TrEMBL record:
Reaction(s) this enzyme catalyzes, per UniProt: Mg-protoporphyrin IX 13-monomethyl ester + 3 NADPH + 3 O2 + 2 H(+) = 3,8-divinyl protochlorophyllide a + 3 NADP(+) + 5 H2O
UniProt KW DNA damage keyword: no
Record's keyword annotation contains Metal-binding: yes
Family per similarity comment: Belongs to the AcsF family.
The entry's keywords: Chlorophyll biosynthesis, Chloroplast, Iron, Metal-binding, NADP, Oxidoreductase, Photosynthesis, Plastid
Domain Rubrerythrin diiron-binding span(s) in chain numbering: 79-212
Localization per record: Plastid, Chloroplast
This protein's name: Magnesium-protoporphyrin IX monomethyl ester [oxidative] cyclase
Pathway: Porphyrin-containing compound metabolism; chlorophyll biosynthesis (light-independent)
Domain of life: Eukaryota
One of the Pfam families matching this protein, by short name: Rubrerythrin
InterPro entries per record: AcsF, Ferritin-like_SF, Rr_diiron-bd_dom
Amino acid sequence: MQSTAQQQKEVQETLLTPRFYTTDFNEMSNLDISSNTEEFEALLQEFRADYNKQHFIRDEDFNKSWGNLDNKTKILFIEFLERSCTAEFSGFLLYKELSRRLEKSNPVLAECFLLMSRDEARHAGFLNKAIGDFNISLDLGFLTKSRKYTFFSPKFIFYATYLSEKIGYWRYITIYRHLEKYPEHRIYPIFKFFENWCQDENRHGDFFAALLKSQPQFLNNQQSKLWCRFFLVSVFATMYLNDFQRSDFYKSIGLDARQYDIQVIRKTNESASRVFPIALNVDKPEFFMYLDKCATENKKLIEIDKRETNPILKTVQKTSIYLNISINIIKLYFIRPIESSNLLKTTK
């Protein structure tokens, strides 16, 4: 058995680690959503229905021993669970606080955030129980107190969270459909829950889409196009780099990490075009070429960290790599985007 200190595992902070966010609660309190009242009322009814109330109940498949997983796969899978749990818990904290702060000024938004925090807490708890199957516990209370919170203005919260919820949907449903087709690669029963689970992500994304549509100033000018482009590039690049360095995990469930990410990026880009004024030109050959270059450079960073090298030399080497990654991200950003209306015409 592991010690308590070992069991209460801390998640190492890196540039690619899921972050905890805070925002301008006064600005959020003053939001006028009257232009989209009907959609918010419909969304609230869906949240109240709580379609997944009975879904996250562990069945007998979880009672098996998981000692038969080879050590490398186990380590990668635990890391996948930890990252997923941290991301869900981050959403819970943000939504819960928004609900508390908006209760008097905007009760409809407050209740929506409260019910979304319920969903995120359920997801995080389910994932943490899964981590427990490997004799490890993620101390969520410690995370709440110890993690640094990144400040985003409300419109940035809307852009980033809308995309994270939609990309979460496409990630979960893609894995679920793959494992339905190839059940021999389902190394752990949690994947059976992904179909209904991702519908929570989809509803949350629809809520943030409604928020964005209720604030046309966040979508209908040149500045908005630049910010939408920035968040699309940031979210896609972060996922791509994360998954590239964990390609062995995807291999263990029968997926090619690169092809998986390409499919998820294409689907999320298309989904976002229904809300954002622009979409990224993912069909341009350079698009994934630049992402591949970033991922290769990021792998070099990991290898440098593993070496017993002079700290000054490490810093010099890493600075050069960060510069190369930044250059390729900038090139990615400056690929001319597509007007969303044009993309939607081609996908109908």
